[in-house]
Write a structure and sequence with these properties.
Blueprint: H1 14-25, H2 27-30, E1 34-39, E2 45-50, H3 65-72, H4 75-84, E3 88-99, E4 107-112, H5 115-128, E5 130-140, E6 146-158, H6 159-174
């Protein structure tokens, strides 16, 4: 599926296509009901689709709220892990969601990380060892009607900083 609902100048190459297919077939993501439909070659832009079907429908005939959240849950974390590389730890720390209206159609989300934001993250981690960031998510239909919003807080740290913190905590725990 090379569907691009959102305007973008980015393109999907073979590696992006492979990543898209791999995440879509990963069992816990696949069962959730979301599908990645676009994965840019630089990993800075990902588009996700959630459809209303027999697997995602709840008792009242709209998309189950858990389906909406599971479709967006891992995306920013995966983007940052792939972009930043092996020298970093990236974890979801918290999130908040707002259901605006029942989803009875196909909805889409765009996850975009600018080069400036990535540079800021790298600078903050280099200066402080870690960084907390809140990133927004909007699920909307193809006409732009918003159905669901979320804010994802992510913890990003250098592996060196994280290892030192774990060692400090271990020393404290063994003294009691």
């Amino acid at each position: 599926m090379k569907t691009k609902i959102f305007e973008t100048s980015r393109h999907e190459n073979l590696i992006g296509k492979f990543r898209r297919i791999a995440v879509n077939f990963f069992p816990c993501y696949r069962r959730g009901g979301g599908r990645i439909i676009f994965f840019s070659s630089d990993i800075q832009e990902i588009h996700v689709k959630v459809s209303l079907n027999w697997q995602t429908r709840n008792y009242v005939g709209s998309v189950f709220g858990g389906t909406l959240y599971s479709a967006i849950d891992p995306i920013y974390m995966l983007q940052l892990l792939w972009i930043l590389g092996k020298g970093y730890i990236v974890w979801d720390k918290s999130s908040s969601m707002k259901f605006i209206r029942p989803v009875k159609t196909t909805v889409y989300a765009k996850f975009e990380l600018s080069t400036e934001l990535i540079d800021t993250i790298k600078t903050e981690v280099a200066n402080n060892g870690r960084y907390l960031i809140n990133l927004p998510v909007i699920l909307q239909d193809k006409h732009g009607t918003i159905y669901f919003t979320a804010s994802k807080e992510l913890y990003i740290a250098s592996k060196t900083y994280h290892k030192e913190r774990q060692e400090q905590k271990a020393k404290i725990n063994t003294t009691f």
